[in-house]
């Protein structure tokens, strides 16, 4: 997802330039508001900015001829999420903040973690993923490719573009060997904002419909 990361990282680095530039839908060139949704182009794992009409056009899994998926808007804070040390070790996650995506092409989970250089992809143990899904049935509602399980001090189900916004902020504000105060403040701000936009759902299951 190099291109996707580059796009979001650039937005984090150059907010002033972004404000001066009129963004347009990348399918029909319609001018876009500052806040808009994205389509994921599956072949290249690229995010495409989308206007309202194009969002509606691709707002179900069968649309887009298998090329595009609309990134959902639901954000769930998962209460009672079960991830014991054994499962964490089997995931082989090298840092505490990671996100996992179910790749519909391979059928495998893919683990990423943010770094000063961007998103790093690491092998994800399928059996560990299945244990997580068994212990946290809400994960069976995770939409392949376009939603992620984000794990930090808490666990979340979020749109995939949220994860890359976090990666972009870390990349833009990391200083020195340890990151520095500025990047820690941006990470705290990200999760505070995420909490404000999320609903809390039990990891053991939910009857809620996707937002």
UniProtKB/TrEMBL annotation:
It comes from Nonomuraea angiospora. This is C2H2-type domain-containing protein. It holds the Pfam family DUF5947. It comes from the Bacteria.
